[in-house]
Write a structure and sequence with these properties.
The chain is an alpha+beta fold. Among the domains are: 57 residues, no CATH class; 103 residues, no CATH class; 97 residues; 74 residues; 89 residues, no CATH class. Helix content is 19%, strand content 36%. Strands 22, 24, 26, 33, 35, 36, 37 and 38 form an eight-stranded mixed sheet that branches. Strands 1, 3, 4, 6, 7, 15 and 18 form a seven-stranded antiparallel sheet that branches. A seven-stranded mixed sheet has the order 8-14-10-11-12-13-9, with no helix packed on it. Strand 28 and strand 29 form a beta hairpin. Helix 1 packs across helix 2, helix 3 packs parallel to helix 4 and helix 4 packs across helix 5. The protein is globular. It starts with 11 loop residues before the first helix and ends in an 11-residue tail after the last strand.
Length: 641
C-alpha cells in the first residue's frame, strides 16, 4: 500500500534551526541576536518557503508514479497509459422467473412479451431499489393459459439489474481535434452503456457502436467507443479517429448514450421483487407471478485506488492473453466483479502434479449462491480461458482453503508512559493485530511475517517496551459422527518436530466413548492419541503427522458429538517456522480471534541519577512476574523474539 506524504517529516522547526546555524557560523552574524523580531520573521519566511516547496516537490514527485500516487485522478491516468480500464460502479443482479396465469380468460393471445426495462422494486433494509429487465422476454400459452417467460437462451431464469435508465444526447460539431463527450454522472455503470449514432437530429435510423474491449480486429471503418473515468469522477465517451480504434461520428450526427445509474453494493441482498409496471391483456392488468431464483449480488462501488494500483500492472503484463498464472488472475478480476480475489497455478505446481491443466481458485462476494458461482466458473471457461489461452490447456477450479492463525501476544507495558490501563493497552494491541490481518492477509498470496507485526505493536505506544508473539496454525474439518472415518488434513507449511514438554498437535473437544475428549500427540512422538478430560488415554494411536509435508492423518476417527456446537473441529499445530508463514496455491491466512489474545506484563522503569559522576542508570522491575532486571534502553526492541 502506498504511504501518504506527511508534512511533519519536513519539519518547519528543523529547517529554521538549520538556517539559524548556517547564519551563526558566518563571521558577520557571529554575535547576532537571532531572536530579535526582524531577523526572526525573516527566518520564519525562509523556513516556511523551504517547507512548502519541499512538500510540494514531494507531492508532485509522488503523483508522477503509479506506486506512490495518492490522488485518484493520478492513479487513473497512470493506469490508462498501461491500457487498463478502471471499473465504475456495477449494478446488482438478481435472477427470477416470471409467469402469468390467464386460465379462463377469453381471447387471450398466443404470445405475450415483456420489453427490456420492465421495472421491479425491492427493499434491502429500509432502502428501496429499482430493478429492470435487460432484454425482451416472451412467453407462449401452454394451452392452459399459463405463460412462462423465457430469456434469449430459451430458459426461464431471467436476469434483472438494479438501476435507473438515463439517456445522454450529444451533437457532433465541426470537424477538428478529437472530442471527448462528458457524461456528468458518477453513479454510472459503464458496462450497461449502449451508444447509438443517428445521421442527424431528426433521423430515426441509427448505427450501434460496440465497446472497444470487445473488439477482435480494428479497421478504419470499425465502430467502437470507450468510456473512461474523468478526473472529476464523471465519465468521458471517446471514439476513434479512423486510426486509433475505428471510425468517429461525423459532424451533424446525433449521439445517444443509454446507461444505468446504480447504487452499487447497497443493492446486494434483495430477495423479493414486486412488479412496478403493468401487463395489459385486452386492456386488463393481470398480476405477474415472480419467483426469486438468486438474490441480488455483484453490485460494487467504483474500483478503489489500491485495487487499480495493484491490478493495472498485472493487466498490462497479461495483454489480453493467458500465458502465466498472473494473466489468469488479471483477466478474471477485471471481468467478474463478484470475484473478490483470484489465484491460479499450473498443474505442474499442484500438490499432485497434473500436467496440461491450470488450476484457478476464486473468492466470491459473501452471499453468492453455489448456482451463481457455477455460472461464473462456466463463463470463465467459455469466455476467458477457451478464447484467450494461447495453447490448449484445461481449466480446473479449486476452492479456497483458509488456514487460521492463533496468536498469543505478550508485551511489557509501563503505565507511567501512557494514560491508559494495561487492559486498554491489551485491547488496543488486539485491535492492531486484527487490523494487521485485514490490511495484509485474508487474501491469496498473503504472507505472515511476525517481525512486521512486532514492529507495529512496539510502535503502537511509547509505553509498550517490547513484545512477543507465539504463533500456531489451525485447520478445520467436519468429521462424520458415529462412523469410523479417515482424514488427511493438509497445512500450507512444514510442521514442528515433536517436543518432550508440550504437544505440537491438538484439537478442541469432542464426545467419544461418552466422555469429553481431545486429540493430542504423544510427547516426543508424532503419534496422535485421544485423551479424555481426566488426562487418561482413550485411544493410544488414532493417527500421526508428517513434519515435511504438513499432513495430519487420522485413522478410524469416530466422534459422537462436538462440544462447541459447531459442525467442525479445530485442529491446531505448531509450525516449524513461526517467524514466516507463506502459504502456496489456494491457501489463505486468516485470524481466529477466539483463541488469540494479547496480554500486558507491567514493567515500571525506575530512573535515578548519580550526581557524583553525572551518569543515569535504569532499573526495570516486572511487577507481574515478580522478578526484576536491568535495562539500558526503553525502546523495547523485539529483535530477540
Amino acid at each position: 500500500m502506498a504511504t501518504a506524504i506527511q508534512s511533519t517529516k519536513l519539519d518547519f522547526e528543523n529547517i529554521k534551526i538549520s538556517l539559524r546555524k548556517y547564519l551563526a557560523a558566518k563571521d558577520e552574524y557571529k554575535d547576532f541576536n537571532f531572536e530579535a523580531a526582524g531577523i526572526n520573521n525573516i527566518l520564519d519566511v525562509l523556513a516556511y518557503n523551504t517547507h512548502f516547496n519541499a512538500l510540494t516537490a514531494n507531492f508532485a514527485l509522488n503523483e508522477a508514479f503509479l506506486n506512490t500516487a495518492q490522488l485518484r485522478s493520478s492513479v487513473i491516468a497512470h493506469a490508462t497509459t498501461l491500457g487498463y480500464e478502471t471499473r465504475s460502479r456495477t449494478a446488482a443482479e438478481a435472477n427470477i422467473t416470471m409467469s402469468l396465469n390467464l386460465n379462463g380468460v377469453a381471447g387471450r393471445p398466443n404470445v405475450i412479451s415483456i420489453p427490456a426495462g420492465f421495472s421491479f422494486t425491492s427493499k434491502v433494509g429500509e432502502q428501496t431499489f429499482t430493478f429492470l429487465t435487460t432484454e425482451l422476454h416472451s412467453a407462449t400459452d401452454d394451452g392452459l393459459g399459463v405463460y412462462n417467460f423465457l430469456n434469449s437462451e430459451g430458459t426461464t431464469s431471467i436476469k434483472i439489474k438494479e438501476g435507473t435508465k438515463f439517456t445522454k444526447t450529444f451533437f457532433v460539431g465541426e470537424a477538428g481535434e478529437r472530442v471527448l463527450y462528458v457524461i456528468p454522472d458518477n453513479t454510472m455503470d459503464t458496462a450497461t452503456a449502449s451508444v447509438k449514432v443517428y445521421a442527424d437530429p431528426a433521423s430515426t435510423n441509427f448505427v450501434s457502436y460496440s465497446r472497444l474491449s470487445e473488439a477482435v480486429s480494428v479497421t478504419s471503418t470499425s465502430r467502437y467507443f470507450q468510456i473512461t473515468e474523468a478526473p472529476n469522477g464523471f465519465y468521458e465517451l471517446n471514439f476513434g479517429d479512423g486510426i486509433s480504434f475505428g471510425k468517429s461520428p461525423e459532424p451533424g450526427n446525433k449521439i445517444e448514450v443509454e446507461y444505468l445509474s446504480v447504487q452499487g453494493a447497497d443493492a446486494n441482498g434483495a430477495s423479493t421483487f414486486k412488479p412496478s409496471d403493468e401487463i395489459l391483456v385486452n386492456g386488463v392488468n393481470y398480476p405477474l407471478l415472480i419467483n426469486t431464483v438468486a438474490n441480488s449480488l455483484n453490485g460494487s462501488d467504483v474500483q478503489s485506488i489500491e485495487s487499480i494500483r495493484q491490478n493495472a500492472p498485472i493487466a498490462y503484463a497479461a495483454q489480453q492473453r493467458l500465458v502465466t498464472a498472473e494473466d489468469y488472475k488479471a483477466v478474471i478480476l477485471k471481468n467478474y466483479t463478484s470475484v473478490l480475489d483470484a489465484t491460479a497455478w499450473g498443474g505442474e505446481d499442484n500438490a499432485i502434479p497434473d500436467y496440461g491443466k491450470v488450476y484457478v481458485s476464486l473468492v466470491f462476494q459473501e452471499g453468492t449462491l453455489d448456482s451463481a458461482k457455477q455460472v461464473i466458473k462456466d463463463s470463465i471457461v467459455t469466455n476467458v480461458t477457451n478464447n484467450l489461452s494461447i495453447i490448449s490447456i484445461d481449466t480446473k477450479f479449486a476452492d479456497p482453503v483458509t488456514t487460521f492463525l492463533e496468536l498469543g501476544a505478550t508485551f511489557n507495558f509501563d503505565p507511567s508512559l501512557s494514560g491508559v490501563t494495561e487492559q486498554t493497552a491489551a485491547s488496543n494491541v488486539m485491535s492492531l493485530i486484527t487490523q494487521f490481518f485485514t490490511d495484509n492477509l485474508n487474501k491469496f498470496g498473503g504472507v505472515f511475517r511476525r517481525s512486521n507485526l512486532l514492529s507495529e505493536i512496539d510502535n503502537l505506544s511509547p509505553a509498550i517496551l517490547n513484545s512477543r508473539v507465539e504463533v500456531k496454525m489451525q485447520q478445520r474439518f467436519e468429521p462424520t459422527l458415529n462412523v469410523p472415518t479417515s482424514y488427511d488434513i493438509t497445512f500450507p507449511t512444514r510442521l514442528a518436530a515433536p517436543s518432550s514438554t508440550v504437544p505440537m498437535v491438538t484439537t478442541d473437544t469432542f464426545i467419544f466413548n461418552n466422555r469429553i475428549c481431545q486429540i493430542k500427540n504423544r510427547l516426543n512422538s508424532n503419534v496422535l492419541q485421544i485423551i479424555n478430560s481426566s488426562a487418561a488415554v482413550e485411544v493410544d494411536n488414532i493417527g500421526s503427522w508428517d513434519e515435511t509435508t504438513g499432513v495430519v492423518s487420522l485413522v478410524g476417527f469416530t466422534p459422537t458429538g462436538i462440544t462447541s456446537g459447531q459442525s467442525f473441529l479445530k485442529l491446531t499445530v505448531t509450525p516449524s517456522n513461526q517467524a514466516t508463514i507463506k502459504p502456496l496455491r489456494n491457501y489463505i491466512l486468516s485470524l481466529d480471534t477466539d483463541p488469540s489474545f494479547a496480554a500486558a506484563n507491567i514493567d515500571r522503569q525506575l530512573l535515578s541519577s548519580s550526581l557524583g559522576v553525572g551518569v543515569s542508570s535504569q532499573v526495570t522491575s516486572s511487577s507481574s512476574s515478580g522478578s526484576s532486571s536491568s535495562s539500558s534502553s526503553s525502546s523495547g526492541s523485539s529483535s530477540g523474539y
